[in-house]
Specification:
The structure holds two protein chains of two kinds. Chain A has one domain (about 5-50, about 60-340). In chain A, about 65% of the residues lie in helices and about 5% in strands. Chain A has helices at about 5-35, 55-65, 75-90, 120-130, 130-140, 145-175, 180-185, 200-205, 205-220, 230-235, 245-270, 280-305, 310-340, and strands at about 100-105, 105-110, 190, 195-200. In chain A, strands 1-2 form a two-stranded antiparallel ribbon. Chain A has a two-stranded antiparallel ribbon with strand order 3-4. In chain A, α2 packs across α11 (about 245-270). The longest helix of chain A has about 35 residues, at about 5-35. In chain A, about 45% of the residues are buried. Chain B has helices at about 5-25, 30-50, 50-75, 90-115, 125-130, 135-140, 145-170, 175-180, 195-200, 230-235. The radius of gyration of chain B is 28 Å and the shape is globular. The longest helix of chain B has 25 residues, at about 50-75. The chains are: A mainly alpha, B mainly alpha.
């Protein structure tokens, strides 16, 4: 735990850069996958199998003209994309990438910030991320953008509640809000008769897992809940007026928050770094990576399969279906916990 | 100077500057942004005091939910229609200033006269450590000693929610639930089919009226009422 602060910064720097590269290749992965779903090839020209496509996209975005609407509220217009980008990236600080390792005689803790309320930290940060969308939409002085921003505000506030409530069952079972503790609790194996199964919370909290996944897709504004940027009706919604690298901050933010939420979901429900041979730091990391890619594939799969929800359906599902189910899950979990303790 | 003192003064300075910004800025959306900044810095102060749970709840509840709704409302309002905050109304300003000074004096007197300075309460570091942390300690106190107050607050909030739902309801609830299952879409002929909506005809059987007949259809039940005269928007009146 007590490592020098410079070491912490190095770990944070490495993780942040890995995340950014991961984000770049997430776009490649998504394009390839969508292409496969639609029986196309996807990017093929840039590098082998289009692997250099993210670099080409980045260079193209940086070279574009940066347009600012005349009626825009300039300071707000400038910093709104940064809010989305920064809040997306900060969440990774509390994800446990393993226990401690020793490199050159220095003990390194593989969680950047081992907060005792780590899970709530992720929720808090993701709830702040909506400001980037709302303020950007408002500052653009564009009707379509404003509508996208309003949708986003209502959507994120509603689904944040589902996101938080679905996790309470996990917290009750783990008895802690610390993500490290939650992973440790899950890596314990349970013996039921002759079988030995792992204590992953997806097995004991299946309903919470489904609710969490639905809310997570809505929280990251991804299809089929991508109403804030519905291109068919709102001309891309909140980022209509954004171009060049300001647009790319929104783009980066969306993909990074997908990766962070996937890491978070793997940590909470799939045991995080737990898996065969996870005592080894490298294997544990590999397991976490595999689980995260599974969730990311799920995101792409949803986008390729489902049509967009209508706005009233979206809100109706959140308040009339998901919220009662989440409350039911809490009551049942608490009752079972009380009965077995 | 130790690091935590520097960080504290930084947080406090930004917090006060942001609070000033809330009051001074003429644009209500800018005020809300300053308020977000202020809340964030208060959360930072909480973290420095070791109250991480409180800090995160502050961010989730105030920054993530309440202020988003405030912004939601502000964005829908035309800024030209807002009352003037920064000019006129001398009586209101004088009264507000007086009340502010009285409140500040009250707080100052309360702080200067308190008798518990230097005394330890029940929540000592050891007591918190023994139950496993701040979050656990807070949970234990909240759901045992202060359970009654907690439940009363829950009740008040529930009443508020029910009140909001009642305010948002259409004036004749029973009729609407009985007859309508789909949303009204002004772009779709079936959406403005007043006859089908009023008489409760099943969706599949509802006759699709020609566009020119839309508003001439006989209405036996609830009629579609436009909230505003369309001429208001075009200025034709």
């Amino acid at each position: 735990m007590d490592e020098p602060i410079w070491l912490k910064f190095i770990v944070a720097f490495i993780i942040m850069n890995v995340l950014l590269v991961g984000m770049a290749y997430m776009t490649w992965f998504e394009r390839k996958m969508i292409a496969a779903f639609q029986d196309r090839l996807g990017p093929t020209r840039t590098g082998p199998a289009g692997l250099l496509q993210p670099l080409a996209d980045g260079a193209k975005l940086l070279g574009k003209e940066d347009l600012i609407p005349r009626a825009a509220d300039k300071p707000v217009f400038f910093f709104a994309p940064l809010i989305t980008f920064m809040t997306a990236i900060v969440g990774v600080a509390v994800i446990p990438f393993g226990e401690q390792i020793t490199v050159f005689g220095e003990t390194i803790n593989l969680t950047i910030a081992d907060l005792n309320i780590g899970a709530l930290f992720v929720l808090a940060i993701s709830s702040v991320g909506v400001y980037g969308i709302i303020l950007g939409a408002w500052a653009s002085a564009n009707r379509y953008s404003l509508l996208g921003g309003l949708r986003s505000a209502a959507q994120v506030v509603s689904y944040e509640i589902i996101l938080g409530l679905s996790l309470i069952g996990v917290f009750i079972l783990a008895g802690s809000l610390n993500l490290g503790d939650i992973v440790r609790e899950q890596s314990r194996s349970l013996e039921i008769g002759p079988f030995e199964i792992s204590n992953w919370f997806i097995l004991s909290q299946p309903l919470a897992f489904v609710l969490f996944m639905i809310a997570a897709v809505a929280e990251t504004n991804r299809a089929p809940f991508d109403l804030p940027e519905a291109e068919t009706e709102l001309v891309s919604g909140f980022h209509t007026e954004y171009s060049a690298f300001r647009f790319s901050f929104y783009f980066l933010g969306e993909y990074i928050s997908m990766i962070v939420i996937s890491l978070f979901a793997s940590t909470l429900f799939l045991g995080g770094t737990d898996g065969p041979g996870s005592d080894n730091f490298g294997l544990g990391l590999l397991w976490l990576l595999l689980k995260t890619v599974l969730f990311l594939f799920f995101y792409v799969w949803l986008r390729a399969t489902l049509p967009r929800f209508r706005y009233d359906q979206l809100m109706g599902i959140a308040w009339k279906v998901l919220l009662p189910l989440a409350l039911l899950n809490i009551i049942v979990t608490a009752a079972v916990r009380l009965a077995t303790n | 100077m130790p690091w935590d003192v520097i960080v504290f003064y930084l947080l406090a300075a930004v917090c006060i500057a942001a609070a000033l910004g809330v009051v001074v800025s003429s644009n209500p959306v800018h005020s809300a942004i300053f308020l977000v900044l202020c809340f964030f810095n208060v959360a930072g102060v909480f973290v420095m005091m070791g109250a991480e749970f409180l800090a995160v709840i502050q961010v989730i509840v105030y920054t993530g939910a309440i202020l988003v709704l405030v912004l939601f409302v502000l964005m829908l309002v035309n800024p030209d229609e807002l009352p003037e905050f920064h000019q006129g109304r001398p009586i209101q300003r004088a009264v507000a200033g007086l009340l502010g000074i009285i409140l500040m004096l009250e707080i100052a007197i309360a702080i200067l006269n308190r008798e518990v300075i230097g005394q330890q309460g029940a929540a000592t570091a050891a007591a918190i450590e023994s139950v496993g942390g701040n979050t656990q300690a807070l949970g234990r106190v909240l759901y045992s000693d202060y359970l009654f107050a907690f439940e009363v607050i829950s009740l008040v909030l529930t009443v508020g929610v029910i009140g909001a739902i009642v305010l948002a309801l259409p004036e004749r609830l029973g009729e609407r639930i009985g007859t309508r299952r789909d949303t009204i879409s002004l772009g779709h002929p079936r959406g403005t089919d007043a006859a089908a909506i009023g008489a409760g005809v099943a969706r599949e059987q509802a006759p699709i009226l020609e566009t020119r007949d839309r508003f001439a259809a006989p209405t036996t039940g609830r009629r579609l009422v436009m909230t505003k005269d369309p001429d208001e928007y075009t200025g034709a009146k």
